[in-house]
Write a structure and sequence with these properties.
Layout: E1 2-4, H1 11-25, H2 29-32, E2 44-46, E3 57-58, E4 61-65, H3 70-76, H4 82-108, E5 130-138, E6 147-148, E7 150-153, E8 159-164, E9 171-175, E10 183-186, E11 194-198, H5 200-205, E12 215-217, E13 225-233, H6 260-270, H7 274-277
Parallel strand pairs: 3-6
Antiparallel strand pairs: 1-11, 2-4, 4-5, 5-13, 7-12, 8-11, 8-13, 9-10, 9-12
The structure holds 2-oxoglutaric acid (AKG) and fe (ii) ion.
């Protein structure tokens, strides 16, 4: 996980997106429920799916957008959805561009080039990538120790681009290790920066060179916190496996090939043990 500045996304667009998110979540509950996520659906208003895996009470709500927000935004704002749609579509466009750029910066630093990933498409722009915009809302909570905003998880996708509101912190990442530094670290909001989170699929592609970190969101007593996560994954049916350029006699592939659709099924069943279930060789330690 790292923070990215100088990313080229206009600050006024990020501000407008945050206002859209605040407007959306401040609608009356019966209005938000008009765009409720169906039990077998992906998009719309509801609770985070991973809520079922955490024993604490989840103190959050979410709204997922896949592709055009038009249908759901018409349900939320029958009169004035146009401006919210424009902002969201423009934001999705900028995120798609930034995500492809980040992919090549990260993979390029491992010596990977466009020819090494077929599903990146002929121009290496990842046209067929799967993507969703996840809007998160964590209202102020009178008893934050007894609740959790978002249960600990790793992101299933390639990478996530997270805008967290500067008004409140809450995102935490788990620092591995054996010393006293091991534990949950707060990721402070840096004005103008995006938090970039490595997902399970970059972990697999890079054969574990980039690690997918465990993270969660906590809530606080006085501030309503919002975040916007752009979730960027491989094309639905592309087989993803550790890149052959990174393998050799002393570097065997650590993960079995998997498609995005297959992996989502595994994740729904095994949650944080899904990645481990693809492991081909036992960890060294
Ligand atoms: O709210 C946050 O900062 C974290 C969001 C997140 O981890 C997610 O949407 O996957
Ligand atoms: Fe996440």
């Amino acid at each position: 996980m790292f923070q990215a500045t100088n990313h080229g996304v206009p600050q006024n667009l990020v501000d407008d997106m945050e206002s859209t998110v605040r407007s959306l979540f401040s609608l009356p509950p019966q209005q938000k429920l008009k765009a409720a996520r169906l039990p077998d659906g992906i998009s719309g208003y509801g609770f985070h799916r991973i809520s079922a895996f955490c024993e604490k009470l989840m103190w959050s709500e979410s709204f997922t957008i896949v592709g055009s927000p038009l249908q759901h935004f018409c349900q939320l704002w029958p009169q004035d959805h146009t401006k919210f749609c424009c902002v969201t579509e423009e934001y999705e466009k900028e995120m798609k561009r930034l995500a492809a750029r980040l992919m090549w910066l990260m993979l390029g630093s491992l010596g990977i080039s466009k020819e090494d990933i077929k599903w990146a498409g002929p121009r290496g722009e990842f046209e067929d990538a799967s993507a969703a915009l996840q809007l998160n809302s964590y209202p102020a909570c009178p008893d934050p120790d007894r609740t959790m905003g978002l249960a600990q998880h790793t992101d299933s996708n390639l990478l996530s681009i997270i805008h967290q509101s500067a008004k409140a912190s809450g995102l935490q990442v788990f620092r591995e290790g054996k010393d006293e530094g091991r534990g949950w670290l707060m990721v402070p909001p840096v004005p103008g920066a995006f938090v970039i989170n490595v997902g399970d699929f970059i972990h697999i592609l890079s054969n574990g060179l980039y690690q997918t970190p465990l993270h969660r969101a906590v809530v606080n007593r006085s501030q309503h916190r919002v975040s916007v996560a752009y979730l960027y994954g491989p094309p639905e049916n592309a087989q993803v496996s550790p890149l052959s350029k990174l393998l050799g006699p002393s570097c065997p592939p650590l993960y079995a090939p998997v498609t995005w659709n297959e992996y989502l099924g595994t994740k729904a069943k095994l949650n944080n043990k899904a990645l481990q279930s693809l492991r081909l060789n036992a960890p060294l330690n």
